[in-house]
């Protein structure tokens, strides 16, 4: 994935191979959606592989429109799914109506059966939206452990988007972060009235990576990672 966003090789010193489950965390507007979608579109078109972007935040059509407006192109090998695809499964399935993790897993498995080895990448946007659909009674930790395991067994490189910010300089350490193979933090720094976006990798198993914040910009060629940010932790 290090060659998908220009400059990302400054942070990831060796490539990140599938299978992996990676959390992409950040506050509103920090480019979580744009980042994951560009990583996918770049990787898939280069490798001739197939991916699924599952958006639970909006419809496929509005997601596609937003990505076009920001200048991120994508090909036919990147499928955008939304809640209506899960709804269809819900109507014919025998899962409990609130077990959306199982429904998503079934959607992904069906896609795997259809496309086989060519299906290599998945993004779920977002975990917050998924959790809000679930019943409180469901043990999330247990469900997530099995969910992550099954995603890895399907050989997928999965990115899971999550809303959140670093509080008091502490890196996100929720359950998902322990269970995942990597945590990428997208943040915003305000300095003298100007907000700068940055990307920081807090964890990436089997990868030699920088822990520093690197500025992230949207240019004409899409997203771009610039140099490390000085004077910040
Ligand atoms: N054409 C554009 N050029 C540059 N920046 C843009 C453009 N269109 C949108 N943006 C910026 O991108 C931001 C949204 O990016 P994105 O949707 O990827 O963030 P996000 O972290 O997924 O947000 P959310 O938390 O709402 O899901 C906007 O707030 C805006 O600042
Ligand atoms: Mg988003």
What does this structure look like?
The structure is a single chain. The protein is α/β, with parallel strands linked by helices and 233 residues long. The chain has one domain (17-185): P-loop containing nucleotide triphosphate hydrolases (Rossmann fold, 3-Layer(aba) Sandwich). It is 33% helix and 28% strand. The protein has helices at residues 32-47, 60-69, 83-92, 100-115, 127-133, 140-153, 175-179; strands at residues 20-26, 50-55, 78-82, 119-125, 157-163, 182-191, 194-204, 214-219, 222-228. Strand 2, helix 2 (60-69) and strand 3 form a beta-alpha-beta unit. The two termini are 25 Å apart. 39% of the residues are buried. The mean pLDDT is 92. The structure holds adenosine-5'-triphosphate and magnesium ion (MG). The site of magnesium ion has 4 residues, from helix 1.
